Amino acid sequence: MGQNNQVKKGSPLHELQNTLILASSQNEKLVMIEKEKIIALINAWEENEKAKAQTKAYRELCSIEAWENNMKTALELDLKKMEENLEVEKAEYTKRLKKKVPEIEKIAEAKREKIEKQKGQETIKLEKMSDKLTATPSAYPPTTKTCGCF
């Protein structure tokens, strides 16, 4: 009842067994080729995904750089506009001040004339008093106090 595992050469069973072994060997080779093919596809997919990620990162970095440049340009334009406005305000203020100069000179001249007039009146008053004192020598020193402390 024991079966003999050895099959005689030349028997159809032996040839079937050889065919199976050959097929099995070919299947192993096909399986290995399929595995290598899958591994190659996985590696290609990985490289493709890495390239996509790098491209996406590069695009985003370029976008950030463009945004930064736009913001800087906008700020520089704002600064330039402010400087122009300041120049305009400075020119207007200078114009207003230059218009005030003749007014100030006119007021100063009026004050000078008033002081000169007062000086002239004081001179006349002192001359009259001097004439009076010269006419009546006994009236010297004058009774009017010239200083509040004596």
Task: Describe this structure as you would to a colleague.
- It is built from one helix and no strands.
- The protein is mostly helical.
- The chain has one domain.
- The protein is rod-shaped and about 180 Å long.
- The chain starts with 11 loop residues before the first helix and ends in a 15-residue tail after the last helix.
- The model has no long low-confidence stretch (mean pLDDT 84).
The assigned structural class equals mainly alpha
Query: What is Rg?
Result: 59 Å
H/E series: H
What share of residues is helical?
Answer: over 70%
Estimate the mean pLDDT confidence. Answer: 84
Could you say which overall geometry the principal axes of the C-alpha atoms support?
Answer: rod-shaped
How many DSSP-defined strands? Answer: 0
Distance between the termini: 165 Å
Low-confidence runs: none
Largest sheet: none
Beta-strand content: under 5%
How many individual helices?
1
Quickly count the domains: 1
InterPro entries: Remorin_C (IPR005516)
Protein name: Remorin C-terminal domain-containing protein
Pfam family, one: Remorin_C
Organism: Noccaea caerulescens
Gist of the model:
With 150 residues, the protein is mostly helical.
Q: Which features does this protein show?
A:
150 residues, mainly alpha, 1 helix, Remorin C-terminal domain-containing protein, Remorin_C, coiled coil
